[in-house]
Each structure stands twice: as structure tokens, then as C-alpha cells.
């Protein structure tokens, strides 16, 4: 198989890069996604009630239109509905096992944290629906990228109907890496090798969310609001360190929390035990109604091999600065470009960063085309 461009990764950055290419009349690309679904770190937990289907974000949840105008413009172009994060009422603070949680006056974030109706996955679905090119392969794990005589060969594996691994190859002129830099150099063999300084940069760029785990509990109604609680909580006890209201405006209610136990500690705890402790914490905070969610789930991103590597054991305290998107010289100069969120200088690690980095990657390709004319 031969095409112009290989986009490796079908999360937001990969899909937006494909969308941007098609806006320029370029459809000669293939998009390879290792998971069996598109979205990358934008991932839903779907719960079906009698009346509705409800999606809850296992990955990123919020965006901020005031200082992320590019992302906001895309959301408006795709006619996606938004709503503000619920923050009315008191915030609970849990300081120790021996103290009753304290209700503190809540506060509203400024700028307002916004969410998408239907979950962040709606953005993925809408972008995918806009694409004309159907050369999108899911379950395609890229193993090596080899450059020889101005030709780049991308080797990837897929599963056949018997669940056997099948090796595939596509020849391209340009590669866009729409997966985190650390994951790219961990999973993919580059021949010739990447320049040592670039390799070090990419290895040292922490993957946002990779060390984290998120718990979601679904309920029929947001009963905490009846007690003038916002659903927000902070805890020094755990297992969740930070909790928020994850309710849908027209659908089921939910609470979600970030697990405060480090990734290396979570390996020693089964998901079942951790869920039991999370439920008990919600009861301590919000009362007996929290004991029996309609459904609950933990997504441990540190245990996801298509997100995290062995280097992602410790949570970063801040979003990592963006590394170089391409080699400064040598055989990989210009024709191998990083476009995932971590490569965004303005919003590294954020949803808006995926859009920003993809846009920069496409602009880079278009400039290269003009130079070659």
C-alpha cells in the first residue's frame, strides 16, 4: 500500500489533523489507531438507563472557551452543545479519619469550566463523521518506521478474524505522530535511529494523565444538591483526593474523583477493593445515598499500555513543556512530526493542546509542500 501521509494515532490530534488536511483538499493519507476505537485519551464510560444512554468522561472533561478560542471555534463549527460545570453549593473537605468532613463555601472557577453535552467523546464522533477518507484502521499497532531512499515504510500489526496478528506495511512520504512522545519512542522502532537529543527530549516529556486513575459513580439523581453541596470535595484521607459533580444536564447524575494513591501503589490493590474504598469515601462525604450507585468504574491510565510507559509511575505536578516537534537535521528532519497534545507549546497536555499541535503539524506539512513545488 502507498499513500502520502501516515497519521499514527486516532485521538483528537490525529482526527483533527485529518480534518485539517481534508479542508486543504488533501485526502491521500492513512490513519492508524492502536485501540479498537477512536478517541485516544478521550474515552467514555457509557451507562444505559431505561430512558437514556449516558456518557461519562474517563479522560479529559473540561475546556475553557475564554482562553482556548481555537478549540471553542471547532466546537461551534461542529454545532456541539456545551454547559457549565456545576459548582453551586458548598465544597466538602476531609482532613482525617477522625474528623467529620467540613462544608466550606464553594467557589466558581473563572474562567468557567465548560463541558460537552454527551461527553467529550462527542467531539471525536463529530470530527470522524466529517472525514471523507475511509483509510482509517483501528486495532493497528505501529511497530516500526523505517526510512530508506526518500521512502518511509510504516509497519503495523492488526488482528484477523481468528484473532491472529497480521503484519502490514504502508509506504508514505510523511509521518505525523499523534501519540504522546514518550509512548512513541517506547513502542516504535525508528530506523535510522532518532537523533539522541530529540530522543532524550521525547523520553523526558511526561504523558499527561498517564499516572492517573479516575473513579466514576453513576446515580439516578444528584442528591447532594438537595443538601446544598456542589459535589466537589478535597480529601487528605482518600482514596480519592479530588471529587467533582459529573452529572449530565439531561440524564443521569454522577460523581467522579481522581485517585490520590500513586500509580505504583495502585498496582498492589485490586480494582474491586479500590472501588469498595471509593464507595465508602462517598458515603462519608455525601451520606448513605452514595452507597449504591447504579454503576461505577475505575479507569487506571497507568495500567493502559496504549497510554502509559514504565516512566509514567509518578504524577507530574504540572503540564510538561513541549519538546521539539521534529529533528533539527538528519534523515528525519521535517518528514517526521509530532502532533499530539504534549507537543503544543501553548496548551501541552490539554484537549486544546491536541488541536493546537495538530494544526501546527498540518501547517508544517503545507509549508514543506510549497517548498517542494
Summarize the structure.
This protein has 373 residues and is of the alpha/beta class. The chain has helices at residues 12-23, 69-77, 121-130, 181-187, 196-203, 263-266, 271-286, 351-372; strands at residues 5-8, 29-33, 44-48, 53-57, 82-84, 90-94, 102-104, 114-116, 136-138, 141-148, 151-159, 165-172, 174-177, 189-191, 213-219, 229-235, 240-245, 253-259, 295-300, 336-338.
Description:
- This protein is an alpha/beta fold and 373 residues long.
- The protein has 2 domains: 1-42 and 120-208 and 318-373, FAD/NAD(P)-binding domain, CATH 3.50.50.60; 43-119 and 209-315, Polyamine Oxidase, Chain A, domain 2 (Alpha-Beta Complex).
- Helix content is 24%, strand content 28%.
- It contains 8 helices and 20 strands.
- The strands form 5 sheets. The chain has a 7-stranded mixed β-sheet, with helices on one face.
- A hairpin with a 7-residue loop joins β6 and β7 (102-104).
- α1 packs parallel to α3 (121-130) and α1 packs parallel to α8.
- It starts with a strand and ends with a helix.
- The model has no long low-confidence stretch (mean pLDDT 94).
Amino acid at each position: 500500500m502507498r499513500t502520502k501521509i501516515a497519521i499514527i494515532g486516532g485521538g483528537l490530534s490525529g482526527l483533527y489533523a485529518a480534518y485539517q488536511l481534508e479542508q486543504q483538499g488533501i485526502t491521500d493519507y492513512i490513519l492508524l489507531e492502536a485501540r479498537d476505537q477512536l478517541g485516544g485519551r478521550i474515552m467514555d464510560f457509557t451507562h444505559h438507563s431505561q430512558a437514556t444512554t449516558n456518557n461519562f468522561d474517563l479522560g479529559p472533561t473540561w475546556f475553557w472557551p475564554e482562553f482556548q478560542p481555537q478549540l471553542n471555534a471547532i466546537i461551534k463549527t461542529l454545532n456541539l452543545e456545551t454547559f457549565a460545570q456545576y459548582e453551586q453549593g458548598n465544597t466538602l473537605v476531609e482532613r482525617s479519619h477522625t474528623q467529620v468532613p467540613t462544608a466550606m463555601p464553594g467557589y466558581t472557577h473563572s474562567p468557567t469550566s465548560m463541558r460537552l453535552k454527551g461527553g467529550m467523546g462527542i467531539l471525536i464522533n463529530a470530527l470522524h463523521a466529517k472525514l471523507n477518507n475511509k483509510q482509517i484502521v483501528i486495532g493497528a499497532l505501529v511497530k516500526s518506521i523505517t526510512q530508506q531512499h526518500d521512502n518511509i515504510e510504516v509497519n503495523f500489526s492488526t488482528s484477523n478474524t481468528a484473532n491472529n496478528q497480521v503484519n502490514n506495511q504502508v509506504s508514505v512520504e510523511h509521518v505525523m505522530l499523534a501519540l504522546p512522545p514518550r509512548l512513541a519512542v517506547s513502542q516504535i522502532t525508528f530506523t535510522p535511529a532518532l537523533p539522541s537529543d530529540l530522543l532524550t527530549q521525547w523520553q523526558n516529556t511526561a504523558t499527561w494523565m498517564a499516572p492517573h486513575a479516575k473513579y466514576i459513580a453513576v446515580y439516578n439523581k444528584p442528591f447532594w444538591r438537595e443538601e446544598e453541596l456542589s459535589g466537589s470535595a478535597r480529601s487528605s484521607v482518600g482514596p480519592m483526593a479530588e471529587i467533582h459533580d459529573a452529572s449530565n444536564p439531561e440524564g443521569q447524575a454522577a460523581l467522579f474523583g481522581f485517585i490520590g494513591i500513586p500509580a505504583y501503589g495502585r498496582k498492589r490493590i485490586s480494582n474491586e477493593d479500590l472501588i469498595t474504598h471509593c464507595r465508602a469515601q462517598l458515603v462519608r462525604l455525601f451520606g448513605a445515598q452514595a452507597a449504591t450507585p447504579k454503576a461505577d468504574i475505575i479507569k487506571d491510565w497507568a495500567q493502559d499500555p496504549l497510554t502509559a510507559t514504565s516512566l509514567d509511575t509518578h504524577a507530574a505536578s504540572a503540564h510538561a513543556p513541549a519538546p521539539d516537534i521534529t529533528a533539527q537535521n538528519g534523515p528525519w528532519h521535517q518528514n517526521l512530526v509530532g502532533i499530539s497534545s504534549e507537543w503544543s507549546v501553548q496548551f501541552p497536555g490539554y484537549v486544546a493542546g491536541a488541536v493546537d499541535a495538530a494544526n501546527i503539524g498540518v501547517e508544517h506539512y503545507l509549508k514543506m509542500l510549497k517548498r517542494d513545488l
